[in-house]
């Protein structure tokens, strides 16, 4: 965060500079976390957004399963700039979020869940979640729960905390019960 705060002293800062300062210059796990966060936000109510984000999650998880661990931002997005002042305000929010993540995570806890071959199983589950997201578009809360599940699973893999990853798996299991309950209620 110190590097981002230093970048905020400039009058204009490109998004690629911020990503580089955060160490996110190409990692796919932070992208999965952000996509999950989008689904947890009120934006998940926008028609078809959950489907588009879900398919993006599936593609990214599939790329990771094939061994790709990084990507580049599209050049147009990487060159987008913001004022240093706006970035400075955002840094405060990011610091609070980083402190929260530090409080709930502990690198190395149940680490065996975050390394191959278990990591590959988790990525396959994340890919499956992304693929079923379009089917869950009209089931209330399901996309938000699935987004939270993806966010926690990606965070668990990123910081190598198996307990956080298990939280994501538990949320995904709970989300799976929603359509099952809805179908059984309609049928019975």
From TrEMBL:
Pfam family, one: ExoD
Keyword line: Membrane, Transmembrane, Transmembrane helix
InterPro entries in UniProt: ExoD
Coiled coil: none
Positions of transmembrane segments: 21-40, 46-66, 112-132, 138-158, 165-187
Protein name: Exopolysaccharide biosynthesis protein
């Amino acid at each position: 965060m110190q590097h981002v705060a230093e970048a905020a002293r400039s009058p204009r800062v490109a998004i690629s500079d911020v990503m580089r300062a955060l160490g996110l210059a190409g990692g796919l796990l932070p992208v999965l976390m952000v996509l999950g966060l989008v689904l947890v936000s009120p934006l998940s109510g926008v028609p078809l957004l959950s489907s588009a984000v879900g398919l993006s999650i599936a593609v990214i998880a599939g790329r990771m399963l094939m061994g790709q661990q990084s990507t580049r931002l599209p050049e147009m997005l990487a060159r987008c700039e913001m004022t240093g002042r706006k970035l400075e305000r955002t840094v405060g929010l990011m610091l609070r979020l980083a402190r929260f993540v530090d409080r709930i995570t502990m690198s190395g806890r149940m680490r065996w869940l975050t390394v191959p071959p278990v990591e590959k199983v988790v990525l396959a589950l994340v890919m499956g979640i992304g693929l079923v997201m379009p089917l869950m578009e009209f089931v209330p809360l399901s996309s938000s729960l699935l987004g939270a599940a993806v966010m926690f699973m990606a965070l668990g893999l990123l910081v190598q905390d198996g307990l956080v990853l298990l939280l994501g798996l538990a949320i995904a299991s709970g989300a799976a019960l929603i359509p099952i309950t809805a179908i059984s209620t309609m049928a019975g």
